[in-house]
Amino acid sequence: MRLQDWEIKFEEKISTIATKEDPAHDLLHFKRVVSMAKKLCEAENAKSEVVIPAAWLHDFVIVPKNSPLRSQASKMAAEKAIEYLKSIQYPKEFYADIAHAIEGHSFSANIEIKTLEAQIVQDADRLDGIGAIGLARCFATAGLMKRSFYNSEDPFCEKRQPDDSQFTIDHFFVKLFKTAETLKTKSAQVEGQKRIQIMRQYLADLKVEI
User: What residues make up the domain containing 61?
Assistant: First the structure.
């Protein structure tokens, strides 16, 4: 079976997992990650048989950001994804690398990445957290968590330590700006710098408005 035919199955399955209740992890998120993963895969000459299913299934188990199980989410996703791949008889020689790519993509899991394919899936997912789409996802998550947009006395953390448990803009300084520094592949690093500049311009524009 062609990889394109497998993808039809992957999208059908993920459409039953991703919900509109969390816009930051809806079906469109998966599609963007897959699209970026394909670009990186081609640029870095990686194995598409590993990258594409891992990108589609990277959040096979979705755990809320504030859940105590958050650090285990990618491990749970990897296990369930492999069960699913077995059920549809995807070639078993790719299982180990796919599982590693899924388990390793998460910030919370803090797992050492050992393959190029895992680097690509991680990079693709992290790129979706920054730039213009990253802004949208950040504020969507803020709404779900009932978190304020910014601290009225010091919106941009100039004289205080950022606290993203309370303020959304603080998350830029706690995590998002640092995300670009964690990108592994050269192709992703170039794209990451472009997206960080979009976010810095947004903060400059926000500063004028507030």
Answer: 1-117
Instruction: Give the per-residue pLDDT at 1.
Output: 83
Is residue 105 located within the same domain as residue 178? no
pLDDT in tens, 139-197: 999 998 899 999 999 999 999 999 999 999 999 999 999 999 999 999 999 999 999 99
Residue 26 included in any domain? yes
pLDDT for residue 132: 97
| Residue 22 to residues 19, 41, 56, Cα–Cα distance (Å) | 6, 28, 17
What CATH number does the domain containing 185 carry? 1.10.3210.50
The pTM of this model reads 0.90
Tell me which amino acid residue 200 is.
R
Residue ranges in the chain modelled with pLDDT below 70? 63-72, 107-109
Q: What is the 3-state secondary structure (H, E, C) of the chain?
A: CCHHHHHHHHHHHHCCCCCCCCHHHCHHHHHHHHHHHHHHHHHHCCCHHHHHHHHHCCCCCCCCCCCCCHHHHHHHHHHHHHHHHHHCCCCHHHHHHHHHHHHHCCCCCCCCCCCHHHHHHHHHHHHCCCHHHHHHHHHHHHHHCCCECCCCCCCCCCCCCCCCCCEHHHHHHHHHHHHHHHCCCHHHHHHHHHHHHHHHHHHHHHHHHC
Number of domains composing the chain: 2
Do 89 and 143 sit in the same domain of this protein? no
